[in-house]
Specification:
With about 300 residues, the protein is of the alpha+beta class. The protein has 13 helices and six strands. A six-stranded antiparallel beta sheet has the order 2-1-6-5-4-3, with helices on both faces.
Length: about 300
């Protein structure tokens, strides 16, 4: 492990990014260029102290999971990711494992779709990257522990959070999407039989959710079915959107895009979300609600 060079590479990559590059609000009073260490820590799902120690060349050897998370957080391309692994004394990811690295070309697509909520999912269902509009619609994924940034984990083991949006579903729809979630993970497990992270996720879900365990024992393989979804936003209420999945074949990832027909109430809600960002407001606040109804920005 080359600690000094690893530290240099991490600092250089962090200072080359802006909050907008990674789907975070810019905020104010930024005294230094690039991301803050706290923001890198949030995106990678590690502690701030851990990032500080790595950047000072005195940290422990990172695990391959942490290295992959840092590479994603810092928007490294394949060569830079491999360099990061080598400097940390680890071999880069091998073929036959779920690809957790978002290519720069896919990231550019995410950036170009800045007016639509967009996320990138791994074959395992991990939320690998998202833009600012996805945070505004669904909640800030950077504050969710890294291991819990998985749509299947959230469906079966996640707890309701009043600050985050949820998908409105009938009991029949909930049962159908639960079966689809399990079927898609079964397909992934068959496609990546040597990936320990897939086995670990399945084992955790079977231990923690009787519903998942029953569906795993009785169901078969399948694929995600994307369609229209009604998002219950904590400030704006229900927003019905089209949800499309674009398959990135060579990395087996999906780009999830939420959109609305031009001129529709949902399109107007998305336009308001571009102004509000991740700012959360109580619907019980009369002043905030009044401004929402007329489409004006809400004061902080």
């Amino acid at each position: 492990m080359d600690r000094p060079e690893l530290a240099r590479v991490l600092v250089q990559a962090r200072t080359a990014l802006t909050p907008q590059d990674v789907g975070l609000p810019a905020g104010s009073r930024r005294r230094v260029p690039g991301l803050r260490r706290e923001e890198v820590a949030q995106l990678a799902g590690v502690s701030v102290d851990y990032v500080v120690r790595l950047e000072q060349g005195r940290g422990p050897q990172p695990s391959t999971q942490v290295l992959a998370a840092l590479a994603r957080a810092l928007r490294l391309d394949d060569d830079a990711r491999d360099e990061l692994f080598h400097l940390a004394g680890s071999a880069p990811p091998r073929p036959g494992r779920v690809d957790e690295h978002v290519r720069p070309s896919v990231q550019r697509l995410l950036d170009r779709l800045s007016d639509l909520p967009t996320m990138v999912l791994s074959a395992r269902g991990d939320i690998l990257a998202w833009n600012a509009m996805a945070s505004a619609l669904l909640g800030d994924w950077s504050v969710v522990p890294r291991r819990q940034r998985n749509i299947i984990w959230q469906r079966f083991l996640g707890s309701p959070d009043p600050r985050r949006s949820r998908v409105a579903m009938s009991d029949e729809e909930r049962a159908e999407t639960a079966a689809q979630s399990v079927a898609s993970l079964r397909t992934t497990a068959a496609r990546y039989p040597d990936d320990p992270s897939v086995r670990e996720l399945v084992a955790e879900l079977r231990r923690g959710s009787p519903t998942f365990d029953e569906l795993w024992r009785t169901g078969g393989p399948g694929a995600w079915q994307m369609s229209r979804k009604t998002i219950e936003h904590p400030s704006l209420g229900p927003i019905t959107l089209d949800c499309d999945a674009l398959h990135v074949v060579d990395s087996d990832q999906k780009v999830i895009v939420y959109s609305a027909e031009t001129g529709s109430p949902a399109a107007e809600a998305l336009a308001l979300l571009r102004v509000l960002g991740t700012q959360w407001m109580s619907s019980e606040d009369p002043a905030a609600q009044s401004e929402l109804e007329v489409g004006r920005p809400v004061r902080p």
